[in-house]
Design a protein that fits this description.
alpha+beta; 10 strands; about 55% strand; single chain; Lipocalin; about 15% helix; globular; ten-stranded antiparallel barrel
Length: about 170
């Protein structure tokens, strides 16, 4: 009986630790997703390679935010943002040919900063293959957005890209 009680206690502890890992306590995912929805529209950033463009639109009765990215010297990409229970997720359909999934780990409603961290990915041939790993968005105000993407390869950050977008429409 004592072993059975210890086993049950360990299972309850493991389940509670696992549940705690799925969402940071400081992340109000509903508020973060509501802020993301305000991005609906068209955005532009001037880069060394020309103009980068983002288009945001809601789909699925407002349950998913679709981000389409195009640039003068780059193939198009897409990122989808949505809630999954209490978790805010993104899937990035990358020109690298893989699809990293990330989870929101922190959101500061005062600064508009929302940080996503790598969860897993599809179409990675090896764990060390290059992929987008972390994303930080800072919704400065209604017309300004800063987007920072971290590309990892062989377990190390290889590239950090920051774009400053202005709303066009």
């Amino acid at each position: 009986m004592k072993i059975h009680t210890i086993l049950i206690a360990n299972l309850v502890l493991a389940a509670s630790l696992s549940a705690a890992d799925t969402k940071s306590p400081e992340t109000d995912t509903a508020a973060a997703f509501a802020r993301l929805k305000t991005l609906a529209g068209e955005w532009e950033a001037k880069t060394a390679d020309g103009t980068a463009r983002l288009t945001y639109e809601l789909t699925g009765a407002g349950t998913t935010l679709v981000e389409r990215e195009t640039a003068d010297k780059m193939p198009g990409m897409m990122t989808m943002y949505h809630l999954n229970g209490g978790r805010l997720m993104l899937t990035h359909y990358c020109m690298a040919g893989n699809q990293p999934r990330m989870e929101a780990r922190s959101f500061n409603p005062k600064t508009g900063e929302l940080r996503f961290e790598f969860l897993d990915a599809t179409n990675l041939k090896t764990p060390g293959e290059g992929h987008m790993h972390n994303v930080t968005l800072r919704i400065v105000d209604h017309d300004h957005l800063v987007s920072q993407w971290e590309f990892f390869e062989n377990g190390q950050k290889k590239l950090n890209e920051t774009f400053e977008y202005t709303r066009v429409k």
